[in-house]
Amino acid sequence: MVVLELGGLEDRPSLLVAVMFSLIIYIENRMYRTPRNLKKLNVIDEGWRLLDFKNRKVGEFIEKGYRTARRHTGAYITITQNIVDFDSDKASSAARAAWGNSSYKIILKQSAKEFAKYNQLYPDQFQPLQRDMIGKFGAAKDQWFSSFLLQVENHSSWHRLFVDPLSRAMYSSDGPDFEFVQQKRKEGLSIHEAVWQLAWKKSGPEMASLEAWLEEHEKYRSVA
Known about the structure:
By secondary structure, this protein is an alpha/beta fold. It has 11 helices and 6 strands.
């Protein structure tokens, strides 16, 4: 699995170009020049940066990837914050190819204003019930789970994603959480120890239950 997280390069466009082309060469070699019975997955986070990249080679990379990866037992996952990045008149040809050739689509909470505008422009994309449900999705940090619509070809279903307190701490993008981990790292803690302390700070009761569960199962394994 290859994961691309491009957020750290947004203020360094010249470096972004160099990194982008190096990654494209590497990914294409791994995706198309390895045995077809080997499963491959390429995850692109903050995908709007790549989808909107003004370069023909990048567009060809996206279009080719989403159209041919399945023949090589491969898959692409592209994550972005707004459905408009994929499906609108402003979207690039690469973005529209990614959207059109994706068998699986996951729609999470959208900006209320942007989603309402999108539905006015593209009233046939979602059914009235779907528009209403997506518009009522709550913030994950308030309700401790993420709601999402899963679309697989012509089938749709509703889901909630719950994650453990360690995962919530590890993937948190909140400023105070980031600074907490950075401070612990300066104090000499490893990244694992820093995340563990953040999880205790944010979700003490859950972490206590998790540790008790781990201790119980460790005893069970020792007896077995």
